[in-house]
Amino acid sequence: MGRLVTIGRNKNEMNGTKNNTKHTRWLVAAVAVLMALTLTLAGCGSSNTSNSTTTSSTKNPALANAVAGDGETLTVGTDATFAPMEFMDASNNFTGFDMDLMRAIGKDMGVNVKFVNIEWDALIAGLQTKSGQFDMAASAMTITPERQKNILFSDPYFVSVQALAVPKDSNIKSVKDLKKGDKVAVQNGTTGNIWATNNLKGTGVIVKPYTGGQDCFTAMAAGEVDAVIIDGPVAGNYTKQATYNAVNLGKIEGADTENYGLAFPKGSDTLAAAINKSLKNVIADGTYLKIYKQYIDDTNPPVMPQ
Fold it and tell me: Rounded to two decimals, what is the model's pTM?
C-alpha cells in the first residue's frame, strides 16, 4: 500500500501546477482507500486475537498427536461403579474423586475431557489391546507389577488399602473371624478379588465376585454374602449410607498398601508425561486437596504416595 502513495506523489510533482488540484484529489482518494484497508486489516487482527482459544496444540504441542479424534479432547475410560472414586450421580453425570481430578488435569493441560463408562474387565482389556475406545483410564486402578507388564501407568496419585466391611449386627470383627461357609463379596478382577482369592484359599470361605463395587454392598444388604473386601475409600463410602446397614472395619491386617495410577495403553509415553506434569501442578496449587476433602476425608490431609 505504501508503494501507491509514493507513485501518486511522484506523478504530481512531474505534471506541475496545472494538474495539481486533480492529483491532489487523486492522492486524497488513495489515502482514504489506504486508511480504510488498514482499518479493515487491523479489525481482522483484533478479532482473531480476542476470539482465539487455547487448544492442546498451542498449550501442549505434543498432546495434539497423542490423543484421538480432534487432538483437543481427552477420552477417559472409567468403571463408574466405585464410589467415591467414580460413579454416576442422580442426574447420570460422571462424578467422584477421579472424575474431578481428571477435569482439573484437563483444565491445566488445555484440553476437553470426555468420559466413557466401561465395565472393569473390558476397561483392562481395552488398555491392553489399545482398543481405541479411550485414550486413557481413570478408575482407581492399583499399580501392580503384573499390570505394568501390559499397561503404562502415571505417577502414583492416591494411597489405598484393602478393607473389610460387614453388616452392623455381624459377629465378624476381622478376616480371622471368617469361617468355612462364609461368603465374601469382591469386585471381579480387582486387587480385592486377588487378595481374597490368595489369602482365603483353603479356609472354606467362599469368594463371590460381582461386577461393581456397589453390587457387592447391595448383595451384603440382601443377605447374599457375609462380608465385603474392597478398597478402603469405597468401603468408607458405602458404609456411611444407611441403605446398606454396614460398618467399615478398616484395613485388613497384613494387606499391602496400594498406590493408584492413571492408566494408558503401552506406547502412550507422550500423553503419560503430559498427564504427570499436570498432575504435579494440580497437587501443588491445592486443587487436589480440595477434591480430596470433598470426596474422601474433610478432616485429615491425604496420605500422598512416596
Answer: 0.76
